[in-house]
Model the fold of this input.
Amino acid sequence: MPAVVVNHIAKTFKAEKATVTALNDVSFEAEQGELFGIIGPDGAGKTTLFRILTTLMIADKGNATVDGFDVVKDFKEIRKRVGYMPGKFSLYQDLTVSENLAFFATLFNTSIEENYDLVKGIYSQIEKFKDRKAGALSGGMKQKLALSCALIHKPSVLFLDEPTTGVDAVSRKEFWELLRDLQKQKITIIVSTPYMDEAGLCDRVALIQEGKILDIDSPTGITKKFGKPLWAFKADNMYQLMTDLLAMPEVLSVYSFGSEHHVMFHDPNQSTDPITKKLAYQNLSVRRIEPTIEDCFMDLMKSK
Amino acid sequence: MPPVQQKTRQQTKMKQFIYFIRKEFFHLWRDKRTLFILFGMPLMQILIFGFALTNEVKNAKIGILDNSKDEMTTEIINELEASRYFDIEENIHSNADLEKAFQSGRIKMAVVFPDRFQDELMHTNKAPIQLIGDATDPNVANTLINYASAIILDYQEHMKGFQQYPYTINSEVRMLYNPQMKGSYNFVPGVMAMVLMLVCAMMTSISIVREKEMGTMEVILVSPIVPIRVVIAKMVPYFLLSSVNIASILLLSVFVLEVPIQGNLVLLVSECLLFTVTVLALGLLISSVAGSQQVAMLISLMGLFLPTVMLSGFMFPVENMPIPLQVISNIVPAKWFYYIVKNIMIKGLGFTYVWKETLILLGMTVFFMVVSVKRFKTRLE
Amino acid sequence: MTTDKVISVRDLTKQFGAFTAVDHITFDVLKGEIFGFLGANGAGKTTAMRMLCGLSFPTSGQATVAGFDLFRDPEKIKKRIGYMSQKFSLYEDLQIRENIRFYGGIYGLTDQQIKTKMEFLLHQLKLEDKATTLVRSLPLGWKQKLSFSVAMLHEPQIIFLDEPTGGVDPITRREFWNLIYQAAANGTTVFVTTHYMDEAEYCNRVSIMVDGRIDALGSPDELKKKFNATDMGQVFLQLARKAVRSAD
Done:
């Protein structure tokens, strides 16, 4: 039985003078023990989706189940067995680290001792601050504490809404390592993130944009579907290079990717020789590359 | 399920509840600034109202225009000066000066004796004294005129020694329950109502809404705790805080302001605790409609605090208000509370005299609780 | 890009009590440069930027921004710089053109100037038929681009961008950087902080702050060579890992 099933969920909000469609016919399934990523920018609908799955909101259309329980009818059951870490990690700023953890443990009718093994790996990193107020912790520490609090009752499914946003690069990396460790405990983890590069760390991902799913697959599966040849162009003057490339009729798209430009041609069989001949550049280099998740995301964005 | 296991389930649920209350105490205790206000304010209010503010008028500045300057006027003037109500600011010499004195605000009242006052009184048995009051503050003017009239009448009584009139009517005045007419008797119940209203309604509603604003409410909802327990756990610290406040107000009133508790202390305290619960439930109701802490505070201040001060009867008599306001004042819980406390504390009455009002408070409490429970959202929208 | 220095910083320090947020930083920024100001959360980036914008007074050190001394003439500096951040945006409940008019007025533009600028801006961003829409109804990406253009209304010499592309979709992110490129090509100096390491590569030069100090300064190519890395992300991780503050 899949841990999470989402079936044609739709949700709109009425703000003043405007109706916002947060989710538009979203469907997917996550298997038990999977590390499933929801990848998309702000406004894509990630938080709304999480709130529906954690029973905090009711969808306008469609249905969903978590651990086999319906999110609307059996919400009480779901609330007993999921862990939820909303954006901005909701912790009590004026309670200490250990007080926060104790509180969340008792909230779920358990104690810290009962499931300590589960959170040990994470908690040990912040244990020396256990008497410090949560408000005085750094972003990375708060993140770890919030994760511990969400785990302390041994949930079967963990929902993490943008846990790495606003946190430094080192903590981000460490956090994902923690998640992979958690997977070994057979907890299903549903994570959302706007960072495309984090997609590669998941078992499977759903790419979401403006309330619609662009694709669902494993990271390699998605990149394999790209189907078109992708070239990386590099030169001394990157801005000039981009302008020139965009002016060429053969070129379909040019996107900057750090020190390279990712280029696609209208004709998949286009050879790069005539192109490079037209560009008289210092240190021009061209190579064929495999697409990244970000390339795929942008391609899917445009085609929808 | 075997009984032992059942007990454990109950125990953990209780533990969940207790821990929640503990957390609320932490929040309360660690916000030292708010704590200071919540404890200190009632004490300050009692002291301010008790000592500094008073409806009584003392040492009011008055002026005398004595056109006669005879023995009698002098005696009357002496009486006026001797009273603690008046301070003779200046002797005025003409009508023009009189007007200037009022305009400049130097005097609040003037006593004008006509020419040949004593002569006229002796020969015609009648003589007028004009009392002019600055009615820009009508209450003060009224009071001063009354005081002055009382003093003059008193003097007249004295004079009876010289002249005999048949058929005189003596008004004997007795001020019941508060013979010294101390304002503080009035204020203690009023301040109690105000303080409880502020602490319980406003702080409770803010506490709940703050949880929503911070986002921790989301996490709490996605847990097995029953939402009602959340709400009740939030009320507990403020209930205890209010009990302490009630105790300190009563102690201050009795020992510092010398306002006695004539009636049954247990009854008084019970009624206070009932009112506390009423107001806590009101705070709950506010939190279910307020979207942010600011809105909660605004509603508490404008919608509760202000009507309490104005319509409960402790500052301004409700009977003097236009009928629509009198009707509205009936839904202000503080009005009933004020009535109850006044009757028990100052008049020393028992339960038989306040049971109707108690029932009304109880009814309001139940109503607020029911509506809040119905409105409490177990979801985010 | 010329060799004129528009920002010149020497030993700039900011202390909050015993805590040194910014610890004697020294660097220059050249006119027309795209200067990337990187660092982990808590490294002191925001504090340093606020000082350069004249929003916060340094504890010690020297700085010249847009030709004026930071200590003596902070108000003159403010006239010549622009500021935009992910958090600061436009007024959500005002229309696009109302926002433009408002900020134009604040920046001291004449009515005629505002009119001209508004037409140009709306045309450039292709928002002509949306001039009366409330900003609230715009998608996030559009808001960011609009914020940037509004911050540029008064043609500042330097524009400070505080994580301008956070949470925005990848296509809009790149469109945003096109706006940055155009601004730089027109002679505006761009001082930008970001968490996206690929954006660090778009800068002419980059500085990386760790624990209040600048631990690396140079062009992306120079830094990659120095730290033996294939991309800026690796450079950053190497430096950030050594940090004392982010482990706290």
Observations:
- Chain C has a mean pLDDT of 88.
- The longest helix of chain C spans residues 170-185.
